[in-house]
Fold each of these.
Amino acid sequence: MNREQAQKKIEKLKNLLNQYSYEYYVLDQPTIPDSEYDQLYRELEQLEEQYPEFIADDSPTQRVGDKPLDFFQKVEHKVPMLSLSNAFNEQELKDFHRRVTQGLNEEVSYVCELKIDGLAVSLTYENGKFVRGATRGDGNVGEDITMNLRTIRSIPLTIKDKETLEVRGEAFMPHSSFLKLNEERVKNGEEPFANPRNAAAGSLRQLDPKIAAERHLDIFLYAVGEWENSQLTSHSARLEKLKELGFKTNPEWRKCSTIEEVIDFVEYWSKERPNLPYEIDGIVIKVDDLRQQEKLGFTAKSPRWAIAYKFPAEEAMTVLKDIELSV
Ligand code: NMN
């Protein structure tokens, strides 16, 4: 194989592996056996070793950087990452609906989504490439945790169009990763994490990306900060577009045209919650139409067009029952 052929082969293997990885981690529908994936991966590794000048930034071999950071740089959010106001019961959801309809004086539809209990993060893509990832921090300034976020396999290093956008979501630790991690910690005489949220937050704040890589985090993307040239007019259209671009979005969202439908959704997930493979702590309800969102605007702290219904806090999480805590 000459140099030019090697370059082409490296590019082809990289694209193929990224596609398989997308099917495996984002769609949860692998199309080839692991052994075949592993063989192609080794082939790519060997070629990249021979021709390091052709290693692409979005090669699957480049997810885990080899140098630990000294500290995290600060990142300013151009669009602040605000938190949501809360509702704790049916009446407060109805009050929210009343405020929305009074503010708009027209028909309204909502999108209900699961509120994943993890860590809010922001991902910036420039011309389709993942260039920066940050924590929410105080909402205006967060920390640059790009190195750690790159280790999350369901975060695409390149998306399907050359879009420039800042997308937001929740990085979290699935129950399976959490149980494995805590079992190992107990075995090594270390203190187990109290819950998956703490474990996810602790993992993303490690200066050594190798540690984050071992923690097997996952992500759901659900919002947009900035999006150059986007013509989309609703939140639901944005969710669909994010999925098309290759982002992992949570499939359990629903468009509701009445507050009763919203309440049904909340009640359904209050019961179904223990059967999910990850932790949720509530339901997020958003006005779907972006023009209506704009019309409603913000209070000093949060948008008027969204609310987070919070489930009652559970005494002990189901996930912890299986593991012997040494605390
Ligand atoms: O570190 P990566 O490349 O993500 O691989 C971790 C494990 O996941 C490996 O065992 C690999 O075989 C598996 N995997 C399988 C597929 C597939 O399409 N069968 C894709 C990505 C990762």
Amino acid sequence: LRVEALEQLQGVADAASLNDLRVQYLGKKGQLTEILRGMGALSAEERPVIGQVGNEVRAAIEAVIAEKQEGFDRAATAHRLQAETIDVTLPGKEVGTGSVHPLNKVAQEIEDIFIGMGYTIAEGPEVETDYFNFEALNLPKNHPARDMQDSFYITDEILLRTHTSPVQIRTMKAMNGKTPVKVICPGKVYRRDDDDATHSFMFHQIEGLVIGPNIRMSDLKGTLLQFVQEMYGPQMQIRLRPSFFPFTEPSAEVDVTCAQCGGSGCRMCKHTGWIEILGCGMVHPKVLEHGGYDPNEVTGFAFGMGVERIALLKYDIDDIRHFYGNDTKFLNQFAKM
Ligand code: PHE
């Protein structure tokens, strides 16, 4: 048995068959175990002799098994180390560095210009109540001007804000009647438009609001001229065209010199020499009242501009959808600007 077992053990090729042999000889029903178990039938003289031989055989088999097992373990470890080897001298994969999104960049530029004029930044929620978005801005229910801004309603009274003007009311209320108010309010706005080259269901606005004793339309005009010249260059001019917003009176739309032709007229400005950039006006007395101010004591101006529009003009981009496509070929153009 011993010779046979040792012979078989020498020829074993892997850990699994080694275990099979261990069971075959030393297991509970193994060949050697059977022999040792049969010793009760032997005579008193035979028992110690056979017992000793049996134990020797078991020790011999166990020793070989242990030795073999160790060999297999070592081989397995060596194999794993080989397989998991990392070549630390390989050059690494380059991780591209991101850049500031052109819309964020332009928004920051706009903010910086107004901060330079003493404004602070105010923010409001994108999910807004009908009261702040419309009602307090002198747009009562069923007012036809609500059609100008097709809205995403969540309930009858809650909607995604259609402009940043509700932050005017929130700011006034937070100021508790104190003056001066001098804020800009950047943020996302939402309208039920079909997306195309110039429309997006979501875009960005920056609102401006100034309130104090004796704020006049000339203050508004001077502020906007200063902004435009810092943004687009000192040669730029603006013009105000009469317009209508329920929350300002009088209201105006502001055009800036067409950067493409310098004002002489081209396709981009439809041969007018001017490009529209924002809406503005003197804060309507009813809006001041909703904000907790007495329109007999203070006046104010407000304006609202689309960040996309300012950016399209600044960088001569032909389609608003470029801003939302996450195409790194487009975005990388602004990385070093
Ligand atoms: N809220 C207006 C719009 O989204 C813009 C605006 C703001 C006009 C402030 C006047 C005063 O079209």
